[in-house]
Every structure is written in structure tokens, then in C-alpha cells.
Amino acid sequence: MTNDTMITVQQTARPDGFPTPGDFAFVESPVPAPEPGTALVENLQWSVDPYHREAMDSDLLWTLNSPMEGRTLGRVLDSRDPSLRPGDLVLHRKGWRTHSLVSRGEVRPVPDFGPGVPLAAHLSILGGTGLSAYVGLTRIARLQPGEDLFVSAAAGGVGTAAGRIARLLGAGRLVGSAGSARKVAYLTEEIGFDAAFDYHEGPVTELLAKAAPEGLDAVLDGVGGAHLEASIASLREYGRIAWVGAVAQYHSLSTPPPAPRNLFDLVGKSIRLEGFLVRNHMDAQEELYDLAVPHLRSGALPLDVTEAKGFEHFVDAFLGMLSGENLGKMLVTA
Ligand SMILES: NC(=O)c1ccc[n+]([C@@H]2O[C@H](COP(=O)([O-])OP(=O)(O)OC[C@H]3O[C@@H](n4cnc5c(N)ncnc54)[C@H](OP(=O)(O)O)[C@@H]3O)[C@@H](O)[C@H]2O)c1
């Protein structure tokens, strides 16, 4: 590859179950020159996300043998729009490629919060990942100080952000689930969870009941299926579930797990179950900055990020995230 070469990751096949590297190709082409009203961005950091797995099954979302999309941070190299100057750092969605041509409406400047706020914060705790956690806790679950919270997929991007934000919001007992002993230890030793369990070690309902013997007030669930059923079982009256995702079923969307068998307990316990999409809550971004940036600056809010270094590791990072190799947010960096 030369400096004049751009690489685009393209999906070449629809997977049956868990995707493989053979479902993707790295396609080379010349770096494009900006047209009037556009800028050429050299991408530096990319987010790989569970929803990309859903997009892989959809003709509407991801066309085969075409560039894909994903949250990305890059630097303007060349521009034919006076509002986008060479050197500017921008956030955009034209990811899965080394370079992107963008127009003004497609980018957002990276806010400069000064020392203590590394670039990686913008695609993790301060980006869509942290915002999902913040919105789930504050707007959907409406977590109050002292309330007891369960977070599933707790050692991932949204989960670690939720744990750290819940502590800043004054949560009571904080319980998390994750897929390995290493992750469970990270939750209790590094993030401040009071209890955590590996969901492989038994029925989730039993594991959660043991970790939260007095019950729960709120849940942020990113797993679905058995985790959602366990959440309903452990919640007290007037509990709230912010349902952010269902990563346990993204490889088999046509045959999802049975709905939680205790769904009717929502009625008996007056529980509110509410799904949400972070993109409908972008107005909470400034609130998140106000909460998180001072703690990032002071060092009280460490970043939980797994970095895959080198664009050539893009597909491995994506598949690794789906299989749980990440601790915190999985980012690809140039
Ligand atoms: N609604 C929204 O707007 C929105 C926005 C962002 C994210 N989300 C959702 O939030 C959830 C977390 O996303 P993220 O970006 O933070 O990803 P992540 O948690 O950093 O990565 C995915 C994690 O899912 C876990 N996982 C994979 N298969 C699983 C299974 N069968 N059962 C339980 N856990 C499994 C793995 O960790 P383990 O090792 O622990 O298994 C893996 O690390 C996902 O459901 C995602 O779709 C929703």
C-alpha cells in the first residue's frame, strides 16, 4: 500500500450464524480528491459495534461489496469547503475505510477538552457508547441516588461506561454480569461493582438472585433472553428496565430466544420495560460532557478501552468484540 492508496473493508457474503473473516474483503483504491463542498479525511480511530452484526444480515443497511458505515474519528487532510480546514479533527459515520470524503453536514468537530481527555474518549465514554449508558440510566431507568442497579454485558463498552456513570450518579448496590472470570474481577476491582458473575456459571436468574439478594431497582440490559428474564425476576415493585440491546440473539435474528417466560410479572410488580435508541437522545450529549469531562480531566474517570492497533486488524477486532475479547469499548486505531 502507498500513501495514495485507500483501503475499504467490504462485506462480501451474508453470514449464517457467527460471521467469519471470509465474509469480508479489504479493497484497495486510489485516495479520492475532494470535490467542491467536501473534504478528504484520514481516519484515525474506528468504533466496531454489535449493531454492525445486525447490519450484516440486512440488504437495506449493508449492501454487499460496498463501503459500510460506523462511527469514526479522523483528521481533515485536504478540503474544498472553507469550514473544514486541513488538520481539523472530526467525527463522522463513514467508517470501515482508511479515508473518507465528507461534507460539512456529515461531520461534527471533535471538541477540544484539553489535556486529560484523550482522543479515544470521543468514541468511548464521550461517544455513542457512553451516551447509551448515560441515557439508559438517567432518562430511561431514571436511576436515583442510592438505588440498586444491574448491568448486563457489564465489561463491554456500554457496560463499563454504565458502571462508572452509575457510581458518579450515586447508585446503591451495583451488580454486573460478564463472560469470563477476568472480566468479573475487572468489574469489582477496577470499576467499583459490588458484585459480579460470569453468566456461563449457571442459570442467570439464580446467579443474579445470589448477587442481589435484596432485589434491584433498575436494570440496563444489553443482552436480552435469559438476562432479561433474570432482571424481571430480581426487580422490586416499580422497578425499571432500560433495554439497550440483545447481543445474545444478533447471530440468529430469525429465531430469537423465547420472550422472558416471566413477562407477565411486569404487571404484578408494576415494572416498566422500555427499549431505546441512543440516536433519539442526541440532545443529552452536552449533559454527558458536563458530567464526564471534569472527571476525565481529574483522572477520576479512567477510560475502559481495548485498542486493536492497525487497520489490517479491523475485521479481527469486530469479530473479537462479538465473541467477547474486549474489555471496555473495542476501538480500532490507525
Ligand atoms: N440502543 C442503542 O442505541 C445502542 C447503542 C449502543 C449499544 N447498544 C447495545 O448495547 C449492547 C452493548 O454494546 P457495546 O457496544 O457496549 O458492545 P460490547 O458490550 O462492548 O461488546 C459486546 C459484548 O457482548 C458480550 N456478548 C457476546 N455474546 C453474548 C451472549 N451470547 N450473551 C451475553 N453476552 C454476550 C461480549 O462480552 P462477554 O465476554 O461478557 O460475553 C462482548 O464483549 C449491545 O446489545 C448493543 O447492541 C445499543
TrEMBL record:
It comes from Streptomyces viridochromogenes. GO terms for molecular function: oxidoreductase activity, acting on the CH-CH group of donors, NAD or NADP as acceptor. PANTHER family: PROSTAGLANDIN REDUCTASE, PROSTAGLANDIN REDUCTASE 1. Keywords: Oxidoreductase. CDD domains: PGDH. Residues 39-332 form the Enoyl reductase (ER) domain. InterPro entries: ADH-like_C, ADH_N_2, ER, GroES-like_sf, MDR_fam, NAD(P)-bd_dom_sf. This is NADP-dependent oxidoreductase. The keyword Oxidoreductase applies. Transmembrane segments: none annotated.
